[in-house]
Amino acid sequence: MSHREPFPKQLLHRIRRVENDLGRIRTVRNGPRTIDIDILLYGNFVVRTEELEIPHPRYRERRFTLAPLAELNPGLRDPVTHETVAEMLAGLKGQTIRKRE
After folding, report:
1. Which listed residue, 22, 26, 70, 101, has the most CB atoms within 10 A of its CB?
2. Positive or negative, the Cα torsion across 90, 91, 96, 97?
3. C-beta neighbour count of 30 within 10 angstroms
4. What's the pTM value of the predicted model, to 2 decimals?
5. Is there a catalytic annotation at residue 78?
6. pLDDT for 53-99, tens place per residue?
7. Cα gap 75→55, rounded to integer Å
């Protein structure tokens, strides 16, 4: 891998290597999988390619992504909408999550 590749793309390749090492097999898009590691945000980067989209296109709609982000940094702003994680989380309805011990 060239050092000239953008950092988010390098991260994606490393994540895919980790997923493969953990037994992920890509057969059906959005199908069941052993592990799934997504890049939700990458600083203020906005990336739109066939291979990679940052911010993750659906993270704003999912309590299971926003709640942990809000615990870490509720004031973190989405680079596209400029809403904070806390604001996006407050706007979600009808989803529940459960913390695991």
Report:
1. 70
2. negative
3. 6
4. 0.78
5. no
6. 999 999 999 999 999 999 999 999 999 999 999 999 999 988 888 77
7. 16
